[in-house]
Amino acid sequence: MRADPDAALRRVTEPVLIDEWQEVPEILAAVKRAVDDAPRPGRFLLTRSVEADLTSTTWPGTGRVIRIVLHGLTRREIDGRGVGPGLLATIVSGDLSDVRTPAEPTDLDGYLALAGAGGFPEPALRLSGRARDAWLDSYVEHAVTRDVAAAGQTRDPVRLRRYLEALALSTAGLPTDATLYGAVGIDKRTADAYDRLLASLFLLDLVPAWASNRISRLVKRPKRYLADPALALAGARIDQAAVLADPDLLGRILDTFVAAQLRPEVDLLHPRARLHHLRTEAGRQEIDLVLDLGAGRLVGIEIKAGTAPSRADARHLRWLRDELGDRFVRGVLFHTGRQPFELAERIWALPIATLWA
């Protein structure tokens, strides 16, 4: 293929899957020429390792390539329930009676077990117990050593590993930058470089703060999520018992788990939606996730580690509803109980398991 990539493409039957294209980067120019000659959609599927964005010089592909991020497996996929807009479509335009609940309810321990299984295919589908833990530990070490080196980055692996551990312990939280950087002994410039690197390796998801000229004094810092809850547990070197012993960490691990279930569904919504977070100064009001549907329409999402959420638990969602009026499409409070019900006008309490029921 390297000797004559154009001829190699002509010899194969389309559609063509070209895996790890960065090994023979000349193939991209051949694909460009083939697409220019016959611009039919779906002729080529190009996949590559995450390091390629950092190390390879590529043609931009504007107007020729649609970029698709492969997220981790969701529980819907793991359980064989397929993919699609799912629950979010019901939240946006459906009725509470359309929400499905699982035949077998899940309790708090069950949710933490699912979070610990994560969305990486190997540990989620084929491993358990100590074998799964060993796979995840190895993945973390590989990421901060070999993947970083393969990406041509000269980073101190020990310090980067400590930073990943600090991120894992604060996943889905909003620690002050000084607190986070001080725990590792780095400055803002180094932390920003680490954030970009870990995000490029799809280990870290930086969820931007939502901004509005209708609500003042909003925090502007992004919210850092480890991309997978099992990765967070492995990165922090903690187990389910340690999470249960720390109510704050418990809430953030559940938040990380729910965010991982939502990301693929958000990508499937049309028009394209975006995830944000919302917090006012001093934390007087805070919404875990804000789904921006475009045209000023929003869905507020809260995650609680409780089986019987009350109206008081939805006070921040009610505040956002009252601030935005008709632009507030729905508020959802995900909980660890068994039944969906209405908490207030346009605000539903839903079991987390309805995401894959």
Task: Supply database-style keywords.
two-stranded parallel sheet; 42% helix; globular; alpha/beta; 357 residues
Describe the strand arrangement of the main beta sheet, using strand numbers: 5-6-7-8-10-9
N to C succession of SSEs? HEHEHHHHHHHHHEEHHHEEEHEEE
Helix content: 40-55%
On the 0-100 scale, what is the average pLDDT? 91
List the uncertain runs. Answer: none
Q: Work out the strand percent.
A: 5-15%
Domain count, please report it: 2
Name the overall outline: globular
Question: Strand tally, please?
Answer: 10
Largest sheet: 6 strands, mixed
Q: How widely separated are the two ends?
A: 46 Å
How many individual helices? 15
Helix vs. strand class: alpha/beta
Give the radius of gyration.
22 Å
Structure characterization notes:
The structure is a single chain. This protein is an alpha/beta fold. The chain folds into 2 domains: 5-55, no CATH class; 75-355, no CATH class. It is 42% helix and 15% strand. The chain contains 15 helices and 10 strands. It has helices at residues 5-11, 26-37, 52-55, 75-78, 86-93, 108-117, 121-125, 129-150, 157-169, 177-184, 188-200, 229-236, 240-244, 247-268, 315-324; strands at residues 16-18, 44-46, 204-207, 223-226, 274-279, 286-294, 297-303, 328-335, 341-344, 347-351. α15 (315-324) links the parallel β7 (297-303) and β8 (328-335). α9 crosses α10 (177-184) and α9 (157-169) packs across α12. The termini are far apart. The relative contact order is 0.12. The mean pLDDT is 91.
